[in-house]
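Much of what follows relies on a compact textual record of a protein's fold. Here is one such record, which you should read through line by line:
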Amino acid sequence: MPIDKMIHLPDLSFIRLCNEEYGINRGLYNTIDLFFYERGFERIVDRRRNILYFLEHIQKNTDFKNNRAKFGSGGLKIKIDEYLVELEKNRVAI
Protein backbone atom coordinates (compact mmCIF):
# COMPACT_ATOMS: atom_id res chain seq x y z
CA MET A 1 0.00 0.00 0.00
CA PRO A 2 1.45 3.42 -0.92
CA ILE A 3 2.34 5.81 1.89
CA ASP A 4 -0.27 8.31 0.65
CA LYS A 5 -2.94 5.69 1.38
CA MET A 6 -1.42 4.48 4.67
CA ILE A 7 -1.37 7.93 6.28
CA HIS A 8 -5.15 8.19 5.91
CA LEU A 9 -5.97 4.89 7.64
CA PRO A 10 -8.11 5.07 10.80
CA ASP A 11 -6.00 5.34 13.98
CA LEU A 12 -6.29 1.69 15.00
CA SER A 13 -5.45 0.46 11.50
CA PHE A 14 -2.45 2.80 11.29
CA ILE A 15 -1.13 1.61 14.66
CA ARG A 16 -1.61 -2.03 13.61
CA LEU A 17 0.32 -1.32 10.42
CA CYS A 18 3.19 0.14 12.46
CA ASN A 19 3.15 -2.94 14.67
CA GLU A 20 2.99 -5.48 11.86
CA GLU A 21 5.46 -3.82 9.51
CA TYR A 22 7.93 -2.28 11.98
CA GLY A 23 7.37 -4.01 15.34
CA ILE A 24 6.23 -0.78 17.02
CA ASN A 25 3.60 -1.28 19.74
CA ARG A 26 0.94 1.26 20.63
CA GLY A 27 2.90 2.77 23.52
CA LEU A 28 6.02 3.27 21.45
CA TYR A 29 3.94 4.63 18.57
CA ASN A 30 2.35 7.19 20.92
CA THR A 31 5.81 8.25 22.12
CA ILE A 32 7.08 8.64 18.55
CA ASP A 33 3.94 10.57 17.60
CA LEU A 34 4.44 12.93 20.56
CA PHE A 35 8.13 13.45 19.69
CA PHE A 36 7.22 14.50 16.15
CA TYR A 37 4.38 16.73 17.37
CA GLU A 38 6.72 18.47 19.82
CA ARG A 39 9.21 19.06 16.99
CA GLY A 40 6.71 21.02 14.93
CA PHE A 41 4.83 18.38 12.93
CA GLU A 42 1.39 19.57 13.99
CA ARG A 43 -0.60 18.30 11.00
CA ILE A 44 -1.44 14.61 11.43
CA VAL A 45 -0.81 13.88 7.75
CA ASP A 46 2.72 15.34 7.93
CA ARG A 47 3.37 13.57 11.21
CA ARG A 48 2.21 10.17 9.97
CA ARG A 49 4.19 10.49 6.76
CA ASN A 50 7.33 11.30 8.75
CA ILE A 51 6.63 8.53 11.26
CA LEU A 52 6.55 6.03 8.40
CA TYR A 53 9.73 7.46 6.86
CA PHE A 54 11.36 7.38 10.30
CA LEU A 55 10.32 3.75 10.85
CA GLU A 56 11.76 2.84 7.45
CA HIS A 57 14.94 4.67 8.41
CA ILE A 58 15.36 2.84 11.72
CA GLN A 59 14.46 -0.49 10.17
CA LYS A 60 17.44 -0.07 7.84
CA ASN A 61 19.81 1.35 10.49
CA THR A 62 18.90 -0.35 13.79
CA ASP A 63 19.33 -3.85 15.14
CA PHE A 64 16.06 -5.73 15.30
CA LYS A 65 15.42 -8.67 17.59
CA ASN A 66 12.31 -10.76 17.04
CA ASN A 67 11.12 -8.13 14.51
CA ARG A 68 11.21 -5.44 17.24
CA ALA A 69 13.43 -2.37 17.32
CA LYS A 70 15.59 -2.06 20.42
CA PHE A 71 16.47 1.51 21.37
CA GLY A 72 17.76 1.36 24.94
CA SER A 73 17.55 4.20 27.42
CA GLY A 74 17.23 7.50 25.54
CA GLY A 75 17.86 5.74 22.23
CA LEU A 76 14.52 6.63 20.66
CA LYS A 77 15.10 10.36 21.12
CA ILE A 78 18.58 10.01 19.64
CA LYS A 79 17.24 8.12 16.60
CA ILE A 80 14.49 10.69 15.99
CA ASP A 81 16.97 13.55 16.30
CA GLU A 82 19.34 11.79 13.86
CA TYR A 83 16.45 11.30 11.42
CA LEU A 84 15.47 14.97 11.66
CA VAL A 85 19.07 16.10 11.06
CA GLU A 86 19.25 13.87 7.98
CA LEU A 87 15.86 15.18 6.82
CA GLU A 88 17.10 18.77 7.16
CA LYS A 89 20.32 17.97 5.27
CA ASN A 90 18.26 16.51 2.41
CA ARG A 91 16.05 19.62 2.32
CA VAL A 92 19.08 21.89 2.09
CA ALA A 93 20.58 19.72 -0.65
CA ILE A 94 17.47 19.96 -2.82
